[in-house]
């Protein structure tokens, strides 16, 4: 089984479905609500597991009931949490997520900034064998440690590049593949021209680069030429976690030996299927679902 080492943030999301986003200081009644695991790296690890890979997660948590919920939710999905570290006296991260009738989301997150950002313990750990690594930018020291180890082993090291990018400079230089969100690339480049930003990022880092832009699809740099892969059209119900599913699927296909372009097509299909369902991780697709969509 293909093993992906994921590194970064893990949270719990409390999700509320509304007709429209809250705009005033008053009470709102949700049409539906649920609790689900969240966080870029944690979500990607679940997506990888659903798609037939073996995911291992390195993350920082507090020593609290929220941490218990996070870990149990991941382990139910088959994610290996041996590299998840809990810090005594600290709080785990959680979010309130509002989803409107169009499937768009608004997130209010709490993060305990007194949990140590140091990754020395992880850099010194036996990370075992893995076929690719994937890191978000929420714990940049961890990203540098994991992507550095991937580079040493000659396997793909993918950075899920979300703003703010400046904090993850070392990880940017160690990644073999950088998958920016459109917002992340604008933050990195300091302007809104995504094609120009991709060329600048490639020159500065030497990495293969792309930018995901929601329903507009994915831009990627192919030998200096900017190319695009359209998204798969679906009736969007909920976009929460779609980007994380994309990164997990993309990294898994790279680890399985697929080209970057093929991995983009696969990841676009996986993310589209997630958007077509609701319930957070409950709507993450299985491998057979993605294969059926691509073959149909």
UniProtKB/TrEMBL annotation:
| InterPro entries xref list | PfkB_dom, Ribo/fructo_kinase, Ribokinase-like
Keywords assigned: Kinase, Transferase
Q: Does the keyword Kinase apply?
A: yes
Instruction: Please provide one cellular component term from the Gene Ontology annotations of this protein.
Output: cytosol
Quick one: a GO biological-process term for this protein?
A: phosphate-containing compound metabolic process
This protein's superkingdom?
A: Bacteria
SUPFAM superfamilies, alphabetized: Ribokinase-like (SSF53613)
All copies of the Carbohydrate kinase PfkB domain together span 1-285
What are the protein's GO molecular function terms? kinase activity
Signal peptide span: none
In Swiss-Prot or TrEMBL terms, this protein is called Sugar or nucleoside kinase, ribokinase family
Identify the species of origin. Mesorhizobium australicum
- Lineage, opening ranks: Bacteria, Pseudomonadati, Pseudomonadota, Alphaproteobacteria, Hyphomicrobiales
